[in-house]
Specification:
Strand content: 15-25%
Radius of gyration: 17 Å
Number of helices: 6
Strand order of the largest sheet: 5-4-3-6
Length: about 170
Amino acid sequence: MALIYEVIGETPLVRLQRIPKAGRVLLKLESKNPGGSIKDRPGFQMLKDLLDEGKIDTETVLIEPTSGNTGIGLSMAAAALGLKMTIVMPENMSEERKKLMKAYGSELVLTEAALGVAGSVTKAEELQKSLPKAHIVNTLVVYTLVYIKWPFLTLIQTQVLINFRP
């Protein structure tokens, strides 16, 4: 039986036969990832890289301000790797998202809805300062660095190219 991170990215390719007129179009069904989105790929890879580089260990509390699928992907990856994850998000995010992240073992810290994600970023920074061993994953910075390195690719294309295999 495969480990959860071994099946990330092993999603089917589907060919569109009737829509394209001038070429072959293939779709990668990222919704078939274990966490339900393409965010499983970068979530796992970022945490694995941090571990491999010695920037975090199993005692580190990982923190990520997010409002969506990135938090789910990171929560799943943290659970698979035996890491502690705290997700900071606006209180008005869907109950389904909250339940899924909690099911993966993440702690949720909810911020005032009116402050949006900016309020979550501020709270994440406060949490990091208050904990003896904490690290903000900071996916927005990682995505920005990817754009700088490969500016001709879109974010989704870049995520697909990430080598997520252990």
